[in-house]
Amino acid sequence: xxxxxxxxxxxxxxxxxxxxxxxxxxxxxxxxxxxxxxxxxxxxxxxxxxxxxxxxxxxxxxxxxxxxxxxxxxxxxxxxxxxxxxxxxxxxxxxxxxxxxxxxxxxxxxxxxxxxxxxxxxxxxxxxxxxxxxxxxxxxxxxxxxxxxxxxxxxxxxxxxxxxx
Length: 165
Ligand code: RP5
Fold this sequence. Notes:
This protein is an alpha/beta fold.
């Protein structure tokens, strides 16, 4: 599963996380960044997690985006087993609206960082944009695409609000 295929790995704890994590995939696709999405559960598929994290760098990935909800150990465990930068996305949980996910991911002990984003869709999109920013440090064309993406976003913001927008 860690054959060379993409610059960014998007991993998630469950199929149910895809509704959120697909926004990271869509954002990367929109900026022309190669990525692969995988279900890797820290709790249900621990061997898959181990194999993925240990092999991620050798497989050619440069950044990992990890989304999980509830007792969300996936980003932290992944970060513990790979030198690659790991961005964590707290998926909104039913019981606690993602606050459990957020606190599980953000409170890493010193020494093993996870760059933690906002809960839900915004976090997934921003994780992708951060991954792009990292890749753009060594890819001038990608840096240009990211700059254009941000300029287009700015262009879309009206100066004055409309009643029925
Ligand atoms: C976590 O448990 C997953 O990341 C998911 O957000 C949550 C619920 O998983 P399912 O019960 O929907 O598979 O491991």
